[in-house]
Specification:
alpha/beta; Rossmann fold; two-stranded antiparallel sheet; metal-binding; six-stranded parallel beta sheet; 8 strands; 10 helices
Length: 241
């Protein structure tokens, strides 16, 4: 009996978007219009690359960025939920699949002492260059037309499950916890026994209900959450069974 918990990060574990939060470090806490308007759909990683160059050009250093990022609030109930998962690690494998970046996620989880809860974090690689600028790269290449070009979460999940099977690990159930449009692709990969937990009022919930209305519903069960306490209640039921 082992369960796999798959978490998105922005607006799921934390209650904000880490990539837009970093703008608090910019002069006057905003970006110039030209930069702000340079985003093209599906190319968020490139856009953030330009944001990091702008911050670097304006003398924003690593320690200031780290201080700012570690003030992001966790979603309501999330600290309790992650504590509960940490206490029951023998039952839960736990991964993050996120379109944020490795530096931000690492800072935030370590500051709150939650890094050990997660077995693996799949996100865009990031590092500081010799000149002190934060750089970010695509997580991988893929052929999925539904996803942004830097990350298909379904591919990540499938490859992780395949690797776990090779190690002799299979899961009783996968619980997928997310909020965004890019969480729909992996949710559609889930099987009848799995469960998708979209955050109430966010894009993923809306997209799942649109599919149900057009009579092509997802295969897995769906349980909407508004506080991470809802997720914890479900997991407690799961391990009682």
């Amino acid at each position: 009996m082992k369960f796999l918990l798959v978490f998105d990060f922005d607006h799921t574990i934390i209650d904000e978007n880490s990539d837009t939060w970093i703008v608090k470090c910019a002069p006057e806490r905003k970006l110039p219009n030209g930069l702000r308007n340079s985003y093209q759909p599906g190319h968020w990683t490139e856009y953030m690359g330009r944001v990091f160059v702008y911050l670097g050009d304006n003398g924003v250093k690593e320690d200031e960025m780290k201080r700012t990022m570690t003030t992001i609030p966790f979603t309501t109930g999330m600290i309790d939920l992650l504590g509960f998962i940490g206490e029951n690690k023998e039952l839960f494998d736990c991964i993050i699949v996120s379109d944020s970046n490795a530096v931000f996620i690492d800072w935030i989880l370590k500051a709150a002492n939650f890094r050990k809860v997660f077995d693996e974090v799949f996100t865009n690689p990031a590092a500081f260059s010799n000149t002190g600028y934060l750089t970010v790269q695509h997580f991988h290449a893929h052929h999925c037309a539904k996803c942004p070009e830097n990350l298909c979460k379904r591919k990540v999940l499938k490859e992780y499950l395949d690797k776990q099977l090779e190690r002799g690990v299979s899961y009783t159930q996968i619980v997928y916890i997310g909020d965004g449009g890019n969480d729909l692709c992996p949710v559609m990969f889930l099987k009848k026994n799995d469960i998708a937990m979209p955050r109430q009022g966010y894009t993923l919930e809306k997209k799942i209900s649109q599919l149900a209305q057009s009579l092509s519903p997802v295969q897995c069960s769906v349980l909407v959450w508004s506080s991470a306490i809802d997720i914890m209640s479900y997991l407690k039921l799961l391990i009682k069974e």
